[in-house]
Amino acid sequence: MRYYILLALSIFAFSSLLAQKEEQQRQKFRYFNHSQVGLLIGEESEDQARKAMIPTFQTVNGVRVGNHFGIGIGVGAEPFEYTVFPVYLSGYYFLTNKKNTPYFALKGGYAFADSHKKISNYYYNGEHNNKGGLMISPEIGVRFKVSGFDMTLSGGYRYQRLESRVTQEATIYTYNHRVDYKRVSVALGIMF
Length: 192
What we know:
Distance between the termini: 51 Å
Number of domains: 1
CATH class: Mainly Beta
Low-confidence stretches: 15-22
Strand content: over 45%
Order of helices and strands: HEEEEEEEEE
Shape: elongated
Structural class: mainly beta
CATH topology: Porin
């Protein structure tokens, strides 16, 4: 009888250990979503084509690897001279696993543009074939818990290249136009 009780206790203990190990394996890779609303702050051009503050809307879907790392794919929308839609890879590093922790993030990818824009006014008739361009954005921020989900507050640097091919109708003159935006980014987000 003792043998059966010892065998039952051993099986129970072994299955508990396996269940804990399986739970730890599941916890290694956890899905997350990080959605942000913010501003890109920079220099305004004299012709008002480049605004001083541009709103930014972004969301990243990815996986947390362990307690400190996260990687995901992000998309966004931003109204520069024309609206661009960045698609990028985003990496995160959280300093601790506590409720409130600083983090670092690096986003890099390509911003696709609304492709075609015809401009017609007193001074100018022409077409812009917008192509978008490279996007890189390192960030530093703080994640803090608020009733069941995480809030984030971040700041960083944003480099955005925008390219377009411009055709002037009167002279049939075509040229490439490139603008490199270098902006400070400030964002508030939620992460779950």
